[in-house]
UniProtKB/TrEMBL annotation:
Residues 400-410 have a biased composition (Low complexity). It comes from the Eukaryota. Keywords: Amino-acid biosynthesis, ATP-binding, Histidine biosynthesis, Hydrolase, Metal-binding, Multifunctional enzyme, NAD, Nucleotide-binding, Oxidoreductase, Zinc. GO terms for molecular function: ATP binding; histidinol dehydrogenase activity; metal ion binding; NAD binding; phosphoribosyl-AMP cyclohydrolase activity; phosphoribosyl-ATP diphosphatase activity. NCBIfam families: hisD, histidine_hisI. One of its GO terms (biological process) is L-histidine biosynthetic process. Its EC number is 3.5.4.19, 3.6.1.31, 1.1.1.23. The lineage of its organism: Eukaryota, Fungi, Dikarya, Ascomycota, Pezizomycotina. This is Histidine biosynthesis trifunctional protein. It catalyses: 1-(5-phospho-beta-D-ribosyl)-ATP + H2O = 1-(5-phospho-beta-D-ribosyl)-5'-AMP + diphosphate + H(+); L-histidinol + 2 NAD(+) + H2O = L-histidine + 2 NADH + 3 H(+); 1-(5-phospho-beta-D-ribosyl)-5'-AMP + H2O = 1-(5-phospho-beta-D-ribosyl)-5-[(5-phospho-beta-D-ribosylamino)methylideneamino]imidazole-4-carboxamide. It comes from Hypocrea virens (strain Gv29-8 / FGSC 10586). GO terms for cellular component: cytosol.
Amino acid sequence: METVLPLPFLVSVAIPPGLAKLDGLNREEVSILASPFLEATPKILDKLSRFFKRHSSEFHAHIDATTLDSTDDVYALLDGGARTAFVAPESLSQYAELGARVLPAVSKLDLSAASEHGLLIKDFDPTAANVDKFAEEARAKKLKVLYLKPVLEVAIDQFIQVAQKCNAIPILPSTGLTTDKSDSSKLLLSKVIATYWKSDRADGLIPTVVTDVHGIALGLAYTSEESILEALRTQTGVYQSRKRGLWVKGATSGDTQELVRIALDCDNDTLKFVVQQKGRFCHLEQFGCFGELTGIARLEQTLKSRKESAPAGSYTARLFSDEKLLRAKIMEEAEELCDAKTPQEIAFEAADLIYFALTRAVGAGVGVADIAASLDAKGLKVKRRTGDAKGKWAEKEGIKPSAPAAPAKPVEAEKPKSDRIVMQRIDSANATEAELLETLKRPSQKSPDAILKIVTPIIDDVRKNGDKAVLSYTHKFEKATSLTSPVLKAPFPKELMELSPETIKAIDVSFENIRKFHAAQKDDKTLQVETMPGVVCSRFSRPIERVGLYVPGGTAVLPSTALMLGVPAMVAGCKKIVLASPPRADGSVTPEIVYAAHKVGAESIVLAGGAQAVAAMAYGTESVSKVDKILGPGNQFVTAAKMHVSNDTNAGVSIDMPAGPSEVLVIADKDANPAFVASDLLSQAEHGVDSQVILIAVDLTEEQLKAIEDEVHNQALALPRVDIVRGSIAHSVSVLVKTIDEAMRISNEYAPEHLILQIKDAPKVVDLVMNAGSVFIGEWTPESVGDYSAGVNHSLPTYGFAKQYSGVNLGSFQKHITSSNLTAEGLRNVGGAVMQLAKVEELEAHRRAVEIRIKHMDGQK
């Protein structure tokens, strides 16, 4: 299990460590492990608040916040220092801006409830009959992180084994762990840690990097299961000597260590001991085995030494004793730093300021580690200050603080008051335009800058290292470590396309309908216009020669996307069609996608996903063909990668459109069937918690609107992905309007990916549609027919981009070329205008290109 946690497990405690006596592990032992799991309830919120004020930097706490009703309470816990909070899936959308800091939690074996960042499953029973099947599904799902919290009275060793099979982080009850060898009723903590580490040594010892609290490496030692148990029990530096057995650091020299934290590295083959070192670590006359301290750590050591026994007349001793002098020097050096200009001056003045600031800190008993902990705590804040300068300092720099007027309280959408799965309501007649648009805002997505920081290094790596880089990312992200080539070339083996007759028929029917509709879009005839006598302008289409089609995959099966992209490319006549789809863990691609690739005549399938697949197609590698255009949907990272390569002139590649979470807008009047309306809303809500569905109710009574809401609730409860639906519906809206015209005005402003017209005389209203990806007309046209088999394309603009972009169509795989053909008469007719405009723009060569020809004609007379 790969994890960024200090250790690949959490330890659950009933009450925050330090606020009560713990059964099993004590407070110090939990502190060394660093990652407690706590259950937040309204009754202990004050205790948790006090706990985080004192220990936020000491503990990487994970909080079960599913019983908290207030989002403010969850924000306060995260602001106070909790690393991760777990909430009910239906509440997740309220924390979208916090990303991986907030994860969904469920109490059943339902992996579909996971967000892109992970999932917690509570009340997990490792003895349940369906655990093996769940473990297989969990490994295939490849969640970013899966936490498992067991039922009460669980056998911890058995639970750990099952969690490892699930590739999950187990949450172990502290009451079942101990460091006391005589307590046979509990599992030794040392045995748990040793379960996860990997040693390639014959004696089973594991290398241990020892650092001080600043993160400075002191030296290398070795650890055994016996030595780590003693280290945990005594909270001191105890190691395993390869010659002398247990080695208690400082037992003879007096240079002892207080054990602060332990951690395993990312490969679980090296331990790290973080210690408070007394004296020095090395047997030579130096602080650590790699040499003396430098920089700020060395300054801190010097200041502490001066504080204890400063030489007579020492300037530092004077600073410790003269508070006013120290205060004056800090302000003096701060001003000199602000006035510094060159890099050398800034470095010099910053060093002076750090010296005096650290003198102030050490004088008050504050060390660099305390300052670092405070910085880390600030980095965990989720509530941001305005950052304005304070009074006298602002005045000194000429900054005039202005208190902003309190904004008028907007009309808010009416939110549901129960656990029913029901959309918010807003009446357009009682809301301003600004309030209506605010309510219809899509769920926020991760900052583009943050995503680019992740995808850009991947793109650069693939561009530089080709196949090797693509394979390494496929091994890392898809766990397909058996792959030795990143490409599957056509012709594809029949055994990779073994499907049931029913599936083959469904794909063939969809293929033919998509082909018919896109073939009808062909414009084989050259457009030709004589704009004036002798001047003929033409336009003709040609296929884009090489196209790359991104098909999301991995554990999902999406042959429909392969068809929606591949069939138009085939119809357009693209010479080279390259598909890219992430493989499964065994290195294979789903047979449905291979069959679709075969049907459309694809040259190859790139066995990769994400930014690495986009980069491989954009730049080409030893095995992956470079393409001229990349099309297809994907998550935020795929979209960011597509945008990035399309802006790189060296790539010479274009893309179809930006993409976002799926969405639908349904316009329904009193003639609409409530069950049909609800089913259309839910068909998009089940895509993900960041999907949004909008209902525009045209002149419906309360009874008619409630009938739709009842259908939404009842149908949702019957869906396997009900928890995801809850999350989506939580930020979805019903808008009440009086007329069709008002409904269409709002729809065109929203510009939905899918627009469904469940209204009387629906075909007549299509003329009012200005902005939409695809329109579904009338009660017998569910959106799902467009997703699969009707013939229209399902790769559509989302997030309001339907105002500027079309969905994928035949034209997406073509470019239009224009031509001009002039006779001598034609050049005479248009030449005067050309020469005059060239003269106005001062482009003399342009003007002469016409003039020379006309003079040549005149000379032949």
